[in-house]
From TrEMBL:
Annotated source species: Tenacibaculum pelagium
Family matches, as InterPro entries: 3-oxoacid_CoA-transf_B, CoA_trans_fam_I, CoA_transf_AS, NagB/RpiA_transferase-like
Pfam families, A to Z: CoA_trans
SUPFAM superfamilies: NagB/RpiA/CoA transferase-like
The protein, known as: CoA transferase subunit B
NCBIfam families (UniProt xref): pcaJ_scoB_fam
Amino acid sequence: MALSKQQIAQRIANELQDKWYVNLGIGIPTLVANYIPEGIEVEFQSENGLLGMGPFPVEGTEDADLINAGKQTVTVLDGGSIFDSATSFSMIRGKHVQLTVLGAMEVAQNGDIANWKIPGKMVKGMGGAMDLVASADNIIVAMMHTNKRGESKILKQCSLPLTGVGCVTKIVTNLAVLEVKDNAFHLLERAPGVSVEEIQAATEGTLVVNGEIPEMNF
């Protein structure tokens, strides 16, 4: 059974480590803040100038002045801080963020990512994504394995304008957890009830399968 967006975020949250600073992109990545494992402390950063971002507010408690980079209302934990975007990007470019979680429209087997533009469609700009992928050493992508037409988004080569080159380290989709290395996608885990054969059929890029592939744990 394919994962929901919430389950993708929950699986990515298992990658968090104590005392890490983590940037969450818009879309599925923002949900990661709702699933911090017990026993660890993580500081979530948003490039519009927020450190110490908490989970999404309960309906009716939203504060329109507290937003993330995607203009969604968020919460701020005790001890959180708000500052200008220049300071925020200094933090990103200075490599003070241990993990970046982004959404994507396409990822290639060499680690290229396309997540900001579909030619012919109006966009506001790439936002902070290009700074994030250029500066981060640990990038996890949260995405659907295929598009609405059933075509793979896990590719040999991206067809859309690139956001970053050779930068993605791991991908969590609704079907699988993939590690990007040696110019291939290495299958680490599969969604509960999803077979290796289904993942292979949904993956255009080179998929490496070594041994028995476990199902994800939640």
